[in-house]
Each structure stands twice: as structure tokens, then as C-alpha cells.
Amino acid sequence: MSDFDIVGPEAIRDGVATDAYFERTEATLRHAGKNPRVVAEVTADQFPDGDFELLAGVKDAAELLSGHDIDVDAMPEGLLFDGGPVMRIEGDYLEFARLETSLLGFLSHASGCATAALEARAAAPDSTVLSFGARHVHPSIAAMVERSALVAGLDGFSHVAAGEILGKEASGTMPHALLIAFGRGNQAEAFRAFDEAVDEDVPRVALCDTYGDETEEVLQAVETLGDDLDSVRLDTTSSRRGDFRHIVREVRWELDARGHEDVGIFVSGGLGPAELRHLRDVVEGFGVGGHISNANPVDFALDIVEVNGEPAAKRGKLSGVKEVYRTADGGHHVGLRGRPGPTDGEALLEPLIRDGEVVSEFDFDIDAAATRAREDAELVGFGDE
Fold it and tell me: How far apart (Å, rounded) are the C-alpha atoms in residues 236 and 239?
């Protein structure tokens, strides 16, 4: 028995992390001596409908599929999709049949989180936006959530272990628990101890709504830390009284009136795109949690579309191998492979795996994915209000 209820990497790689009916399928096909050559496609929607989502999870998918005698094409992470395949697998069906469950899980969950993060990014394009939602998910997938947020172009995240996996440093300063541990009325002591204890390269961001009025605690932080104070954070959730925007504007006024225009205001607490749009002109940054980490997974499916060279599909799905294209006007187009695509269309599927080996030219870089997401979102009008 494992210490935690976690399916380990070996079970995923070996195909044990699968639905039982794939094991029954394998047994049946082997018994019947059948193992057709197929083309299978991962899709969310058959036809474009104008509802774009952001692709993520391709790196884990490549790790899962590598080592199997198949060819795979995929869209790079950071591109938006709207109908048609985001991934295509060609090979003998039994080579990858039992991997379907994990493959769809990797792509579906990460793409859902990335799409939600892109919604936040689009809502406050000029603000600092950090992912604060790891506490809402199973810790074994925290790195997936944070990576997806970075793919969408967010500026950072809070989870330490995820940072070690991703090669990025986690962000964050103090929780309410720190202030409470020092006791009511001792906020200044807590601010001072934090400043003395924490590395110099950590920004001095004081949390200023634990016990008293937000403005009062902000001014207390200024008096305590002086020029060392970088920002203040307000975590005034919807459960608290008052208009959050009015509170922020009041804090900004009192800071400016005392010559502290350089002290930024950072806000968090149950924020989504609507709140970011409402506050983006009066704050410098946001922490967004549940909107990203609690996002619904994209409803991807893997469907066989060709068997032994002949078009095939179940009822309600489109048979035949497909290509997807992005046109200069931001259009997303789906067509049959081998047929002419749009005259100004760029094919979005790229070689990912050939003969079981990951193609070295395929780009898994997170920063490059974030650049693609920004450019593609602007091209297709994602998040336009």
C-alpha cells in the first residue's frame, strides 16, 4: 500500500493507469489475432465554433507516448484550438491502446487550467498575475497547474515543489497565519520579524487585512518597514464587507498622500477575470487561485479515424485523417489531410514522435509557449470584451 493515494509514474508509463475496458479490449484483440494499423485523433470539437481553448499538457503526453512504435503529430503548447485534432497518432492499435486514459488526462486537465489562466491573463494584460491555486488540488498535480499557468503567460506561482520541478522559483511572502501567530495588535512586530528573517531578494509585501481596517494596517506596515516595503497585499474576499475597489482606492490615496507612491498594491481572494477587469487600473498585481486550479478539464476524446488505410469513425465523429490550420485573420480551419488547405493557412500539427522517439525540434519551452499564447490570443481575439 502506498503512503498516499497517488498513481505513480511507473503505472502511468506501463499503461496500468488505464480504464479496465482497455485491458479487456487488448485481451480480445490478441485472442482474435487482430491488431489493425490505425490513425487516431485527439479532439474536443469536430467543427470550429468560435470558442477557443489553450493547449497544454503536450510535454507529459510526449513522455507517455515515447518509446512506443508509433508516429505522433501535435500542436505545440501555447496555441489555441477550436475544433479538429490537437494530436494525431499513427501505428498498430495495440501499441498505444491502454495509454488512452492517461493521455487524455494529461491533455484535458492541463488545457483546462491553461485556458482559465489565459482568461485571467487577458483580463489584466498589463498587471502582474500569479497562480495561487495549488492548495485547491491534489498535491501530486500542483506542478501541472503551475506549468499550465506559465504556458498561459502568468508571471509566476506559489508552489515550492512545483518550482523545483519546473526550474522556476516560487513567489509569495506571508499568510494570515503569520500575523495571527504574533497575536492581535502585534502586526508591526510580525512585519519587522519577517523583514529580518527572510532573504533580501524576497520582495517585502505586507499582508494588511488580518485584524483591522485595511488602510490602518497598510499605514502600519509603511511605518514599520519604511522604504524597504515593496507592496502591500489585500486579501479581502467577497465574504468581507465593503466594496473591494473602493477599499483599494482608499489605500492608494492614503499611501500617495504620505509620499509612498512607489508602494504597490497586490490583491487576492476569490478573484476571476471579471474582478481583474474591475480592479486592473487601481492595483499592480493579482493572485488568482481557484479560477485556474478548479477549471473544468477540456473534454478531449481520442477517436480512431482510419483503419488499415480506410476512413473510419464511430457515429457522430468525422472519419478520415485531418489537418488544422490558422489563417492570417485568426480563423481556425479543419480539413482532410492531403487536400488543399486555406490559401493563407498555416498547418498547426507538427511532428512530435517518429518511430517512438521524440522529435528534437519540437518545442517544449515554457517561455516560448507563453509567447505563442500571447500572440495567438491576440490573433484570434481571445478574451476580447
Answer: 8
